[in-house]
């Protein structure tokens, strides 16, 4: 009896130890899997990788949307500081007609003017914006709430602030390329609008600007670009964040979860409209600040000393709605660009999480 009892106890003990070992092994495997997933996700969402994804995605997007940027630039410069009159001659009447006129007279090269510096600007602007948005947002959440932004309910003012900070930083870095891009896009042998700089290439433009004004010349108009990107980025990143979360939370049962291309597409469509509405006045001012000819001795601009004066002179001469010149072209550029960029960047990040 005793032996039987001991054997029974020994069997129970062995069974318990076996179960305990199995449980520990299962826990270790689960922890290892969790660690691997966490590390992979971390690599796929690192600052460097997100910067790369944002740069690549925005360059892909601008390849398709640059013609509308050319049209927008010319519409915004047409009639600069001229009071509207019934008999005013306009070369460009609307987006479709301007697209046709430029394509007919200048060909595909005319519609893709400024694409080279446009790529460089996208890398500086959107690589910085998208790469540093989450880290900056995390710092702001930590400073104001004591907790990280991960898993916490969105605080829109902090998201807006993070987007604005990243946008202004990216615009400052990319300002020389935006300067050359704008001047190249305004140039036309067929129908000139604004001051004509006539650069032979991006390199020629940068070299001539440096020769005429040095570092100050390269960064002329940077304050206007920072205002433009700060306003646009604060709305874009925060709105996209909010829309994506809302769609995935309420329409996940229809297959629109956080990683769905459909979710990214819908969130981008809504985001593009809001961004364009907020940013267009700053975009008009930025375009004009960049394209104006240099003042005497190469110092400052001949028409505007700063963005505020540009706002004032534009509105007082052409009326408030002049700040919305080129709005449709801007949206046709910005809407698809926003959609393509965010869809591209989300897919690149997903590939990074899967393969890194």
Query: How is the biggest beta sheet arranged?
Result: none
How many beta-strand segments? 0
**How many structural domains are formed by the residues?**
2
- The secondary-structure class comes to mainly alpha
Assigned CATH architecture of the largest domain? Alpha/alpha barrel
Q: What's the CATH H-level homologous superfamily of the largest domain? A: Mitochondrial carrier domain
- Can you count the helices? 10
Task: Give a written overview of the molecule.
There is one protein chain. This protein is mostly helical and 356 residues long. The chain has 2 domains: 1-43; 45-355, Mitochondrial carrier domain (Mitochondrial carrier fold). It is 76% helix and 0% strand. It has helices at 2-44, 47-77, 95-111, 115-145, 156-186, 202-218, 222-250, 261-291, 307-318, 327-355. The longest helix has 43 residues, at 2-44.
Summarize the structure.
Helix content is 76%, strand content 0%. Helix 5 crosses helix 7.
Question: Would you spell out the secondary-structure blueprint of this structure?
Answer:
Blueprint: H1 2-44, H2 47-77, H3 95-111, H4 115-145, H5 156-186, H6 202-218, H7 222-250, H8 261-291, H9 307-318, H10 327-355
Helix pairs in contact: 1-10, 2-3, 2-4, 2-10, 4-5, 5-6, 5-7, 7-8, 8-9, 8-10
């Amino acid at each position: 009896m005793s032996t039987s009892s001991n054997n029974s106890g020994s069997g129970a003990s062995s069974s318990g130890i076996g179960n305990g070992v199995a449980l520990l092994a299962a826990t270790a495997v689960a922890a290892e899997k969790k660690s691997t997933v966490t590390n992979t996700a971390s690599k796929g969402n690192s600052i460097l990788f997100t910067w790369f994804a944002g740069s690549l995605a925005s360059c892909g997007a601008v390849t398709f949307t640059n013609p509308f940027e050319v049209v927008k630039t010319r519409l915004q410069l047409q009639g600069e500081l001229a009071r509207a009159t019934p008999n005013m001659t306009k070369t460009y009447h609307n987006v479709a007609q301007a697209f046709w006129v430029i394509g007919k007279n200048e060909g595909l090269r005319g519609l893709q003017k400024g694409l080279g510096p446009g790529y460089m600007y996208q890398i500086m602007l959107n690589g910085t914006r998208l790469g540093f948005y989450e880290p900056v947002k995390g710092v702001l959440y930590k400073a104001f709430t004591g907790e990280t932004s991960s898993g916490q309910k969105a605080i829109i003012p902090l998201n807006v602030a993070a987007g604005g900070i990243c946008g202004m930083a990216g615009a400052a870095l990319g300002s020389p390329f935006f300067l050359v891009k704008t001047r190249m896009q305004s140039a036309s042998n067929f129908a000139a609008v604004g001051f004509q700089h006539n650069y032979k290439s991006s390199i020629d433009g940068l070299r001539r600007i440096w020769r005429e004004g040095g570092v100050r010349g390269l960064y002329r108009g940077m304050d206007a670009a920072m205002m433009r990107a700060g306003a646009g980025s604060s709305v874009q990143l925060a709105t996209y964040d909010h829309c994506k979360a809302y769609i995935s939370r309420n329409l996940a049962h229809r297959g629109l979860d956080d990683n769905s291309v459909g979710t990214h597409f819908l969130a981008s469509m809504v985001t593009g409209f809001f961004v364009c509405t907020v940013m267009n006045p700053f975009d008009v001012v930025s375009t004009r600040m960049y394209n104006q000819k240099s003042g005497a001795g190469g110092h400052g601009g001949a028409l505007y000393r700063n963005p505020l004066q540009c706002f004032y002179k534009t509105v007082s001469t052409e009326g408030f709605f002049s700040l919305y010149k080129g709005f449709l072209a801007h949206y046709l550029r910005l809407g698809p660009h926003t959609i393509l960029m965010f869809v591209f960047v989300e897919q690149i990040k997903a590939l990074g999480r899967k393969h890194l």
